[in-house]
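Field log, afternoon session.

UNIT: design team B
ACTIVITY: writing a sequence onto a fixed backbone
BACKBONE:
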């Protein structure tokens, strides 16, 4: 069993040196007992520049070369959504632990295949939902699960910003997995499912870009016990970036930007508002990196905090929402 220490840090490899990978690379030193060892890109020049900037020991112009490097302990997949499944399966089939940027894949079938291969090879796989591991979010889930706001009947979250339409952008190109739901709607949807679980019924509406990707998406989740949740995402306008969880005896209110907030309020009728504040979030990715290393030290193939079952449920829910929106990805319609 591996034990990562100051003298034997976890050596990370990154596939895809894009914007999100830069944030991840900057977080590795913050996680403790971790180093960036290698980066791979189909463009060797980009890989070299990235390695030099973030101090990686080596770089590759082929993903397969990084995956086969015996010095690498774990791989972070940061390629566009459409390539997550392919690159994760390459890693898992070679027994390389994977942290895959959200969304895990384009559809439920791809996520199921990834989970099946993870279990077949007894190799770690986790969706990189970094928000889940932030101290404030962990405290919110603790409060809600303890019944401190009673029975939850409402969850709401939004995530929106303005992005000028560009048919070749990863935000709008269906071949890259474009659309607001997969890119940013996954955050408020994650919150809804984390608190209330898989919905019994879904009502979704939105607007589509000329490419067929969703520019905006409103998903209303209905539960047989009476709870209702809503997740809104858009590339058309800036939204409040707030969220809340309402129960029969109180409400948790998360201010903007809720998905990386270090503070929240607990409000109960007749009581003074309680405000919880944690260390300011600078990067934030270091918390999920620590979780991966914790799981690897324990010999786990999934995180109990962001489990395979949860990623399967999240991908299935997104698939049902996309069906109602009329969004279809080439070669991944299901």
């Amino acid at each position: 069993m591996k034990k990562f220490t100051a003298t034997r840090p976890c050596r990370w490899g990154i596939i895809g040196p894009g914007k999100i990978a830069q944030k991840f690379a900057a977080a590795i030193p913050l996680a403790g007992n971790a180093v960036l060892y290698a980066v791979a890109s189909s463009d060797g020049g980009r890989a070299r520049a990235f390695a030099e900037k973030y101090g990686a020991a080596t770089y590759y112009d082929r993903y397969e070369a990084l995956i086969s490097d015996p010095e690498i302990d774990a791989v972070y997949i940061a390629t566009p959504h459409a390539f997550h499944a392919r690159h994760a399966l390459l890693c898992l089939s070679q027994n390389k632990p994977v942290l895959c940027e959200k969304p895990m894949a384009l559809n439920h079938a791809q996520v199921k295949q990834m989970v099946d291969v993870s279990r077949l090879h007894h190799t770690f796989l986790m969706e990189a939902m970094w928000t889940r591991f932030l101290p404030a979010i962990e405290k919110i889930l603790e409060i809600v699960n303890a019944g401190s706001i009673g029975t939850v009947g409402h969850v709401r979250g939004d995530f929106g910003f303005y992005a000028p339409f560009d048919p070749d952008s990863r935000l709008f190109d269906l071949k890259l997995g474009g659309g607001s739901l997969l890119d940013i709607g996954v955050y408020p949807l994650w919150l809804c499912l984390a608190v209330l679980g898989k919905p019994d019924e879904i009502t979704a509406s939105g607007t589509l870009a000329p490419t067929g990707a969703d520019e905006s998406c409103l998903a209303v989740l209905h539960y047989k016990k009476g709870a209702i949740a809503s997740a809104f995402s858009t590339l058309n306008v800036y939204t409040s970036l707030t969220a809340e969880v309402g129960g029969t005896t109180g409400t948790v209110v998360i201010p903007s930007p809720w998905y990386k907030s270090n503070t929240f309020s607990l409000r109960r009728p007749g009581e003074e508002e309680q405000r919880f504040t944690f260390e300011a979030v600078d990067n934030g990715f270091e918390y999920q990196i620590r979780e991966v290393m914790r799981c690897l030290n324990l010999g786990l193939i999934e995180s109990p905090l962001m489990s395979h079952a949860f990623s399967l449920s999240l991908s299935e829910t997104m698939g049902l929402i996309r069906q109602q929106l009329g969004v279809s990805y080439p070669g991944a319609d299901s």
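LOG NOTE: The longest strand covers residues 152-160.
NEXT ACTIVITY: expression trials, pending approval
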